[in-house]
């Protein structure tokens, strides 16, 4: 039904293509040439987790995931994100034919969208909500940039498959994961999972604190509380994020869901991460994999602010990849 406009261009990221390319080039250049003993991109790293805040905040962190991303065999790129603009139960797919970026258009794989929609009984994303949703759009400039580096001419770019993953429970995430299994098993498919991590502050209704330095024992602060006398608040944020990331790297979907149930960590992309972990775990069980294949490796962790007082706020950003 036409082309989705780049609604956040000029606000969440620069809209001028030359300036945007210079910015992304700078972020990508700051990533080391090797990660975990491998030159970049990492062979077989066709699943990544990357953040979706304004590029001034999350762009440097996202560059780590995108430098690792292996597009060499890609015939399509799945883009999974959470819904910020409306409450979604289940999942929903884009109705647009293209996603416009300042660099040019990314074509949507309408055939795959229809197959995924039917297999998972997914809804359509209301077009106005699609346009206002940043969790998908904030990845499109990086995707375009990496496609250009890999494939050269835009007419050789693989299409994208944008999907919003809604507020699903543990069992529902496993069901959606089973829908994704055949696509994850196909070496011609790449997956970009959109998520920020802890959102801390009164405006996020999440102000936990670990006075004893243990994420299992949290108290709740209020904005009018004095600054805690114990460890700084940002240490608590680090602890709860590290606990969530340990669960992500464990490869256990149940461990990830269980960890967030304990901490209440405001990982906005918990459901896209959850369905992907459920699918990857199913594949490992099916193949009898015993190594690290199909498990995420976290390679970068950053925060927008080091919170010291209850009046502060912070959002955490993570980059990770999985090799299949």
Give keywords.
10 helices, 324 residues, Protocatechuate 4,5-dioxygenase, Chain B, nine-stranded mixed sheet, alpha/beta, 38% helix, three-stranded mixed sheet
What does this molecule look like?
It is a single chain. This protein has helices at 17-29, 55-68, 110-120, 127-132, 134-137, 140-151, 170-185, 233-250, 253-263, 270-287, and strands at 3-4, 34-35, 38-39, 45-50, 76-82, 91-93, 98-101, 104-107, 123-124, 160-165, 189-194, 199-200, 208-209, 219-220, 296-303, 314-323. The longest helix is centred in the last third of the chain and has 18 residues, at 233-250. The protein is globular and about 60 Å long. Strands 4, 5, 6, 9, 10, 11, 12, 15 and 16 form a nine-stranded mixed β-sheet that branches. The chain has a three-stranded mixed β-sheet with strand order 1-7-8. It is built from ten helices and 16 strands. Helix 9 (253-263) packs antiparallel against helix 10 (270-287). It has 324 residues and is an alpha/beta fold. It has one domain (3-200, 267-323): LigB-like (Protocatechuate 4,5-dioxygenase, Chain B), CATH 3.40.830.10. Strand 7 (98-101) and strand 8 (104-107) form a beta hairpin.
The CATH fourth-level homologous superfamily: LigB-like
Class by alpha and beta content:
alpha/beta
Which CATH top level class fits?
A: Alpha Beta
Give the ordered list of helices and strands.
EHEEEHEEEEHEHHHEHEEEEHHHEE
Strand coverage percent: 15-25%
Low-confidence stretches: none
User: Taking all residues together, what is the mean pLDDT?
Assistant: 97
User: Counting H and I runs of at least 4 residues, what is the number of helices?
Assistant: 10
Architecture per CATH nomenclature, i.e. the level-2 architecture: 3-Layer(aba) Sandwich
| Morphology call | globular
Helical proportion? Answer: 25-40%
Q: Radius of gyration over alpha carbons?
A: 19 Å
Q: At the third CATH level, what is the topology name?
A: Protocatechuate 4,5-dioxygenase, Chain B
- What's the domain count? 1
**Sheet with most strands:** 9 strands, mixed
């Amino acid at each position: 039904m036409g082309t989705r406009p780049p609604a956040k261009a000029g606000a969440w990221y620069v809209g001028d293509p030359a300036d945007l390319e210079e910015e992304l080039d700078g972020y990508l250049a700051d990533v080391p040439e090797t990660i975990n003993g491998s030159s970049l991109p990492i062979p077989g790293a066709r699943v990544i987790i990357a953040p979706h805040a304004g590029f001034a905040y999350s762009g440097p962190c996202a560059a780590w995931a995108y430098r690792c991303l292996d597009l060499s065999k890609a015939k399509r790129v799945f883009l999974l994100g959470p819904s910020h603009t409306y409450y979604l139960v289940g999942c929903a797919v884009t109705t647009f034919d293209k996603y416009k970026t300042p660099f040019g258009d990314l074509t949507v794989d309408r055939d795959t969208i229809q197959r995924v929609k039917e297999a998972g009984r997914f809804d359509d994303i209301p077009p106005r909500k699609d346009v206002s949703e940043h969790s998908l759009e904030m990845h499109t400039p990086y995707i375009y940039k990496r496609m250009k580096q890999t494939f050269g001419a835009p007419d050789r770019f693989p299409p994208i498959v944008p999907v919003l993953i809604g507020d699903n429970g543990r069992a529902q995430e496993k069901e959606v994961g089973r829908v994704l299994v055949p696509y994850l098993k196909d070496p011609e498919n790449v997956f970009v999972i959109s998520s920020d991590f802890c959102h801390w502050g009164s405006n996020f209704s999440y102000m936990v604190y670990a006075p004893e330095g243990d994420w299992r024992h949290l108290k709740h602060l209020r904005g009018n509380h004095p600054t805690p006398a114990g460890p700084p608040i940002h240490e608590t944020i680090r602890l709860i994020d590290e606990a969530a990331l340990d669960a992500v790297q464990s490869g256990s979907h149940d461990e990830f869901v269980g960890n967030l149930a304990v901490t209440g960590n405001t990982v906005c992309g918990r459901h896209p991460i959850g369905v992907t972990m459920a699918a990857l775990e199913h594949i490992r069980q099916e193949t009898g994999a015993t190594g690290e294949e199909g498990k995420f490796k976290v390679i970068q962790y950053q925060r927008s602010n080091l919170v010291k007082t209850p009046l502060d706020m912070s959002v955490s950003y993570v980059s990770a990849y999985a090799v299949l």
